[in-house]
Amino acid sequence: MTRDPVCGMVVDEKQARFKSTYQDHPYFFCSEACKALFDQNPEKYLGRPLAESALRRKVAIVGAGQVGTTFAFALMMSGLASNIVLIDQNAALAEGHAMDLSHGLPFAQPTAIYAGTHADCQDADVVVVTAGAAQKPGETRLDLVRKNTAIFKDLIPKIVEHDPKILLIVSNPVDVLTYVALKVSGYPAGRVIGSGTSLDTARFRSLLSQHCQVDARNVHAYIIGEHGDSEVPVWSQVNIGGVFFKDFCPICQKRCDENEKAEIFLEVKNAAYEIIEKKGYTNFGIGLALLRIVGAILRDENSVLTVSTLIEDYYGIQDLCLSIPVIVGSGGVLRHLHLSLDDTEIKALQVSAGVLKSVIDQLNL
Ligand SMILES: NC(=O)c1ccc[n+]([C@@H]2O[C@H](COP(=O)([O-])OP(=O)(O)OC[C@H]3O[C@@H](n4cnc5c(N)ncnc54)[C@H](O)[C@@H]3O)[C@@H](O)[C@H]2O)c1
């Protein structure tokens, strides 16, 4: 096994389809895109001293609003990153937050936190993009699409010019904007990730945990599809400590009919609307969901997470981004998990894909 020198993904030399030779040394790549980047300028990827790159974990956050700064705070407290850069079109805002956060460092982990520009995306392991207009009360996520697509068409080229490893898109509508970022960046699919239904899955697990009175970490459940109104709960695969949900009732000894399940899912689906109605924005849940995804990348965890990714062939769905369980490591999305969905779930996922496809088709990408 070796590592793709461009994206850091683990590659099996014996099976790798993409190879280059530079100064008599063979290099192997996960994709044609990584090979092409390497061939243009090998020194760029080989020139970094190993010790420095192994120790430095840099995360750039573009958009220093509610979500970006809450995530920055969680990341700083976690000690996972050595460098955190805040970038915002409102430079004073980014500077103010960077100062404020850095004053807390004596109570946290050693981290360099500073405000920067797009050029600071250079050498970033992950760039987390939360820039854009936020969802207003009563506004659906899909209403935001035109506003934020225009922002992304301008912003993404300014970021990828500096060749960060992974783009993690958070701005809404996140699935559409992940697809926009993928197309505009020209990056290989695995290196552009949307936070997708990672938060919805956490909400689902958390509500099931309250319902069944079991630690949320032992509740295994997924929300897949669009991060939004058409998202899909995968009830057929919910299990609690290895026991399927339908078989858990005798253990739980609580009434649980279809109405109860529908109520749980409705609460998951409407959570963002309800929180925004009450406090104007959501930040803590998403901040921690981002920490989970970024942690999986920085520590090369190969964790199974529901994030938005390019779908090429999944129950007949193709050429759009939506969430399914995938394996996430230092190279981004490494593999897709094929769930055995029941007929209702397959239909709902296809409807969700149809909603996203109809939006993407209107964007003229
Ligand atoms: N995917 C999810 O689960 C999830 C959850 C919560 C929020 N969101 C989305 O995240 C985004 C941010 O939400 P928020 O509450 O932090 O909003 P916010 O308004 O507080 O922050 C957005 C920041 O982006 C900055 N910005 C705008 N255009 C920019 C550009 N071109 N370059 C650099 N900075 C730019 C703004 O100045 C602002 O500081 C929204 O789109 C929101 O809908 C997604």
Describe this structure in a few short sentences.
The protein folds into three domains: 2-45, no CATH class; 50-194, NAD(P)-binding Rossmann-like Domain (Rossmann fold), CATH 3.40.50; 198-360, Alpha-Beta Complex (L-2-Hydroxyisocaproate Dehydrogenase, Chain A, domain 2), CATH 3.90.110.
Describe the protein in words:
The chain has 365 residues and is of the alpha/beta class. It has 3 domains: 2-45, no CATH class; 50-194, NAD(P)-binding Rossmann-like Domain (Rossmann fold, 3-Layer(aba) Sandwich); 198-360, L-2-Hydroxyisocaproate Dehydrogenase, Chain A, domain 2. It has helices at 32-40, 42-46, 50-55, 66-78, 91-102, 145-160, 174-185, 198-212, 249-252, 258-279, 284-298, 343-361; strands at 2-3, 10-11, 18-22, 25-29, 58-62, 83-87, 112-115, 126-129, 166-169, 192-194, 219-220, 223-224, 232-233, 239-240, 243-244, 303-311, 320-329, 332-336. The strands form 6 sheets. The protein has a 6-stranded parallel beta sheet with strand order 7-6-5-8-9-10, sandwiched between helices. Strand 9 (166-169), helix 7 (174-185) and strand 10 (192-194) form a beta-alpha-beta unit. Helix 4 crosses helix 11 (284-298), helix 8 crosses helix 10 (258-279) and helix 8 (198-212) crosses helix 11 (284-298). Nicotinamide-adenine-dinucleotide is lined by residues 62-68, 88-90, 93, 130-132, 134-135, 151, 155, 170-172, 174, 195, 199, 227, 281-282, 286. The site of nicotinamide-adenine-dinucleotide has 28 residues, from helix 4 and helix 6.
Spatial order of strands in the largest sheet: 7-6-5-8-9-10
Query: Can you tell me the CATH superfamily of the largest domain?
Result: Lactate dehydrogenase/glycoside hydrolase, family 4, C-terminal
CATH topology annotation of the largest domain: L-2-Hydroxyisocaproate Dehydrogenase, Chain A, domain 2
> Would you identify the regions where 5 or more consecutive residues have pLDDT less than 50?
none
The percentage helix is 40-55%
Q: Please tell me how large the radius of gyration is.
A: 21 Å
